[in-house]
Automatic annotation (TrEMBL):
InterPro entries: DctQ (IPR055348), TRAP_DctQ (IPR007387). GO terms for molecular function: transmembrane transporter activity. GO terms for cellular component: plasma membrane. Pfam families: DctQ (PF04290). The complex comprises the extracytoplasmic solute receptor protein and the two transmembrane proteins. Part of the tripartite ATP-independent periplasmic (TRAP) transport system. The chain crosses the membrane at residues 48-65, 86-110, 146-168. It comes from the Bacteria. This is TRAP transporter small permease protein. It is found in: Cell inner membrane. GO terms for biological process: C4-dicarboxylate transport.
Length: 190
């Protein structure tokens, strides 16, 4: 069930990545043309930077879901399969802990319950909590930055789901019988 949810979310994240990868170069090309014509579009620069942040965050989530992150496997390649499974579970647990910690920090940062208690009055929320996350505007777009920062809790949530699915997959992976597996096959000359 969790794996199916992770796969569904991963497909959505990859679709969003594809769209952003197409949009980003177009924004940059339009702005290069504008600068060449002595009519730069300043807000397009800021939007391109924010788009790159979204690309990086969504790319992180997809990388976690597909387990295609760069890894040093010197230790895991040198140990028996049972220890390899234990190390894989430990790594999955660390990733899950990081994703959940990021989710908790985003919850504390955005503090949606306090915002709700203030009737979504941003001024009252900021005055009471000294949290100005909802008030800070972008430099050139004039849009509140929190709309762009919402990628953080979204990726924290989806990364938590991906990490939990990976951990459950690692825990369910069967133990190989003694004397089998890649190390045994390499030692037998097959």
């Amino acid at each position: 069930m969790i794996r199916m949810l992770s796969n569904l979310i991963g497909r959505g994240e990859r679709a969003a990545l594809r769209a952003l990868v197409l949009i980003l170069p177009l924004m940059i090309l339009v702005n290069v043309a504008g600068r060449a014509l002595k009519a730069p579009i300043f807000w397009l620069d800021e939007l391109a930077v924010l788009t790159m942040v979204w690309l990086a965050m969504l790319g992180l989530a997809v990388t976690l879901q597909t387990r295609e992150a760069v890894a040093v496997t010197l230790l895991t390649d040198a140990v028996p399969e049972a220890a390899r499974k234990l190390l894989r579970c430990a790594a999955d647990l660390v990733v899950l802990g990081f994703a959940v910690a990021l989710l908790v920090l985003c919850w504390l940062w955005f503090d949606p319950l306090a915002l709700w208690r203030h009737g979504f009055d941003i001024e009252a929320f900021a005055g009471d909590s000294f949290n100005f996350v909802y008030q800070e505007p972008t430099a050139t777009l004039g849009v509140p930055k929190f709309w762009f920062w919402l990628i953080l809790p979204l990726v924290a949530l989806t990364s938590s789901i991906h990490a939990l699915a990976n951990l459950l997959d690692s825990l369910r992976a069967p133990h190989p019988a003694p004397g089998t597996g890649p190390a045994a096959a390499a030692g037998s000359g097959e």
